Model the fold of this input.
Amino acid sequence: SSYSLNSVQLPDSGTLFNCVVSNVYGSVTSQTAVLTVICTNVVVAAQPNVTLHAGAAVFAVAPLADGSVIFGGNFTNVNGVARSYLARLLPNGTLDLNWNPSPNSLVLALAVSGTDLYAGGVFSNIGTLGRNYLAKLSTTGTGSVDPSWNPGPNNFVFALAVNGTDVYAGG
Done:
């Protein structure tokens, strides 16, 4: 048998968790068991320093292998710097001033594959390129949009997943 754990957070200290298995309906299907988590090659970013304007919201977060974090949502500035709907924090927790893809509306979902970032949402443009609801960007440099990748879904994208070279979008 194989099992997957979703939304596991590292403990403040130690690696032991008490866990109970439940089914999709929330019914407990096991007795309490001790789970030991062994984490290797874990990169923990510095405490982020993020201030968003009143009424702002973050809808999606994508941690990167280098310790950076990309987040998307409903905001127009981060730490007083103009940054619309999509931003990147460096491993030291500060805003990346160079990475600025500039979607023209909400980013609701993110998925990462290597240095490729897939963003889904309500937008119709990222930077100067038309991209309806789904785009592929670089996680490095300025966050440039891949000009050759434009699947053009016909409605908002609320969920994303990547498996190898396959991208799955839900909306």
Notes: The CA atoms of residues 16 and 36 lie 5 Å apart. The chain is about 0% helix and 35% strand. The two ends are 32 Å apart (CA to CA). Confidence is low (pLDDT under 50) at residues 1-15, 36-45.
